[in-house]
Amino acid sequence: MRKLTLLLLVAVAAVSVRCGRTITQAKALADCKFTLAATDSIYLAGVDVRQLRNIRDPRELTQYPQLGLAVLRQNVPLDANLNLDIRNPSTKLAAINSLEYRILLRETELANGFINRRIEVPANGGQTRVPVRISTNAYQLVTDARSRDAFIELVQNLAGQAGAKPSIVTIKVKPQGFPTFITFEQPITNQTLTGR
């Protein structure tokens, strides 16, 4: 009985230490700086947005009938591979096992999802790049008068169009176990996501 009690106390202590470490690592993440860094591909209704780079007038979109068909079907797929950089200025390792995210454009949700893998950001200025796969229906953004212009500007920036007006995207991340989202705004220019 004594051995069982001792074994139980050791197990409880080990779990307590691990939980304490996990909480400390998750709290350190709240001090991290998040930046939307780069992308390797962005497709709107199957069209690589880089092909839209020289579009100056919406009437020119008739070159891409799949965009018009997508609007008629009320299903305008937006697919992208984005990279989120996380920099840790604290003296403690920042780490979590999963992360919920939301990406908004002028208060309209563009995409949301989960990253279900361990993310570690080393202390003292360490940086980690986290790939984020986005797949959403952009129909509401294309057709809603409140978000349409902002969405067109965002597509122009993602395409790398010279002279495009910068877009402001709000990104919310919520580490597993956090009660609220960590929110930051990211200006997107025609050079932001191409890494130029």
Describe this structure in words.
With 196 residues, this protein is of the alpha+beta class. It has helices spanning 2-30, 65-72, 139-143, 145-159, and strands spanning 33-44, 47-48, 77-88, 94-96, 99-105, 108-115, 119-121, 126-137, 167-175, 182-188. Residues 4-20 have low confidence and may be disordered.
Question: How would you sum up this structure in a few lines?
Answer:
The protein is α+β, with helices and mostly antiparallel strands. The protein has helices spanning 2-30, 65-72, 139-143, 145-159, and strands spanning 33-44, 47-48, 77-88, 94-96, 99-105, 108-115, 119-121, 126-137, 167-175, 182-188.
- What would you call the shape? elongated
The share of residues in helices is 25-40%
Q: In total, how many beta strands?
A: 10
The quaternary structure here is single chain
Secondary structure category:
alpha+beta
Uncertain segments are 4-20
**Helix count?**
4
Count of individual domains: 1
Distance between the terminal alpha carbons, to the nearest Å? 67 Å
Strand content range:
35-45%
- Could you state the order of secondary-structure elements as H and E? HEEHEEEEEEHHEE
Largest sheet: 4 strands, antiparallel
